[in-house]
Amino acid sequence: MNKISKYLYGAAIVGVLVSCYDSANAQFPGFKPTPGDTLKSIRISADHKITFSMYAPKASDVTVSGDFQKSYGALKLQKDELGIWTVTVGPVTPDLYSYDFMVDGLKVVDPKNIQVKEGAGGYSNLVEVPGKESDYQAIKNVPHGRLTKVWFYAESLGAMSRVHIYTPPGYEKMTEKLPVLYLQHGGGDNDASWATAGRANFILDNLLADGKIKPMVVVMPYGNPGGGFFAGVGVDTDPYYNYFFKDLVPYVEANYKVAASRENRAYAGLSMGGLQALNMAIFFPEKFGYVLPLSTGFLLIT
Amino acid sequence: MNKISKYLYGAAIVGVLVSCYDSANAQFPGFKPTPGDTLKSIRISADHKITFSMYAPKASDVTVSGDFQKSYGALKLQKDELGIWTVTVGPVTPDLYSYDFMVDGLKVVDPKNIQVKEGAGGYSNLVEVPGKESDYQAIKNVPHGRLTKVWFYAESLGAMSRVHIYTPPGYEKMTEKLPVLYLQHGGGDNDASWATAGRANFILDNLLADGKIKPMVVVMPYGNPGGGFFAGVGVDTDPYYNYFFKDLVPYVEANYKVAASRENRAYAGLSMGGLQALNMAIFFPEKFGYVLPLSTGFLLIT
Fold first, then answer.
1. pLDDT more than 70, % of chain B
2. Is B109 close to A120, i.e. CB distance below 8 A?
3. Which of A82, A245, A280, B45 qualifies as a cystine partner to A35, CB 3.0-4.6 A?
4. Who's near A101: CB < 8 A, 6+ residues apart?
5. Do B275 and A13 touch (CB under 8 A)?
6. What is the per-residue pLDDT across B120-143, written as a single tens digit (0 to 9) for each?
7. Is the pLDDT of residue A26 over 80?
8. Which one of B149, B229, B238 would you mutate to disrupt binding with A, by most A Cβ within 10 Å of its Cβ?
9. Do the chains contact at B149 and A152, CB–CB below 8 Å?
10. Domain ranges of chain A
11. A101 vs A122: CA distance, rounded Å
């Protein structure tokens, strides 16, 4: 193809675009630009303040809440004459935070921010405030492991089961068997959450690049296969433990290069997952060499 | 641990939950149940009608649009005395559809539906209307391939690059080299979209289970690495083609069991990706044995 035909080809494409634009206008006759079109919903200042904004000219009440605050109280945004609502918080410690907008009582995923945390009950947005304190979870130019969604049929559930599995950089060509960490999410989260809000994969990549950990496989299952909110009690009746030992562990040990022994198996869980971790330590001590409950609140009971 | 200590342990957990509930009430003093708490935002009738609902008592205008309609016009929902807005559409052909709620002009991801399609510009919800016409993309009890998010540094972009890669069931233990399909999304979508809205992985699983295709690796890259909306023209200057041939293909061929030859390499793309497919056929015929442009609109030009 010579230069002229390339030019003609390009001109034809432009023709298609113009035509698409016209038909888009015809299809949405009410379409007109608004101040929301180019709005940035999040701006982060050099001193680590976050400014949240939302274009909602017809709303009467807009709030934002999230874990950038110590308590989850809703902060009111103020409306300007263009219909843009704004509030500034902080300074905050550099980290990855989740937040939720509420507009007239309705939870609204920030339409201007594609970064979200998938949970069992819906989506929250994520905002990263960069800085040295959050460097450990940054996406850096280091060797990266892979994050895989795996589906398999779980006999104990009578249903397909999804699990997220992290394999370290170079795993595909390794010949040795690796230790495995089962990493359980908290209440309201799901098997995706440790790798979105938790950035588990990037933290592991960075720790490996720094030589601070050994390569391991990390298995992130869904913690509520029975459908209930709380799977922390009742190892005899809760579907989670049946699923875990009868389906998940055998699947992982048959399909991944992991060492199938107590001293190479670890379990960690956050919040509700922390209670599951305590159950693992109490009821299944022969299965795990290491158990780490995180933020369970359990030990606060007197 | 005997039965009595199990009982005490369970009672202690209940104590934690009650305490958490109390503190949640203290933290959200305005919390009270609403008709929205147990609302189902989507109900599908036996005759394939979809009823959309949203609880938004303060809203003055709620609409829904999506590809369950032939044109994307917004359908108005009607409000009842409880503040629940509802509209019923269809019957529709069984399929996976995307939809967007608008509340007083603001795009609102359905807070009651975790099924979404990730796109370059945000999220749309997904609703599956089951039936024999959509059976080909159902999540069945057949062997499932894995869907992996892979990150690697792309020299041509000077940045980390994310790509979704499907490997067929049993891939890990295969010794032969497989053919590879590069599958490109449309404008407004991203590298996740073919496996969410497109269900590419489940379609491939079902076709393999039926013996209708050979095992293959499917690579789903991001189509706008230059940041612009349209990467369909200008193979000399658009970062996509540089990235594709200098970074992506070498990465895939070095890290996956794929045959590095023209006759084992295929390219398919939808819409904007279809224009990229046409570019591949026109400018890089020596690279691909098969090229499939889908829904480009291009051939309509006279």
1. 84
2. no
3. A82
4. A52, A54, A62, A63, A64, A107, A108, A109, A110, A125
5. yes
6. 678 999 999 999 999 999 999 999
7. no
8. B149
9. no
10. 42-132, 139-294
11. 13
- Please report the ipTM that was assigned to this predicted complex: 0.81
Tokens encoding B137: 């993309």
Query: Model-level pTM greater than 0.95?
Result: no
d(CA A301, CA A283): 20
pLDDT in tens, B36-87: 888 999 999 999 999 999 999 999 999 999 989 877 689 999 999 999 999 9
Instruction: Give the position of tokens 């990235």.
Output: B243
- What is A42-72 written as a DSSP string? EEE-TTS-EEEEEE-TT-S-EEEEETTSSS-
Q: If you average pLDDT over residues A190-207, what whole number do you get? A: 94
Count CB-CB contacts under 10 A for residue A287: 17
Average pLDDT, chain B: 86
Instruction: Kindly indicate the confidence band of residue B231, based on its pLDDT and cuts at 50, 70 and 90.
Output: very low
Are the CB atoms for A87 and A51 separated by under 8 Å? yes
Q: How far is B127 from A15, CA to CA, in rounded Å?
A: 34
Per-residue pLDDT, averaged over B3-22, amounts to 47
Residue closest to A51 by CA, chosen among A144, A116, A113: A113
The CATH architecture one would assign to domain B42-132 is Sandwich (2.60)
Strands A62-66 and A50-55 turn out to be unpaired
Distance from CA of B42 to the nearest CA of A (A): 15
A139-294: which CATH number, 3.40.50.1820, 1.20.1260.10, 3.30.1360.20, 3.90.1150.180? 3.40.50.1820
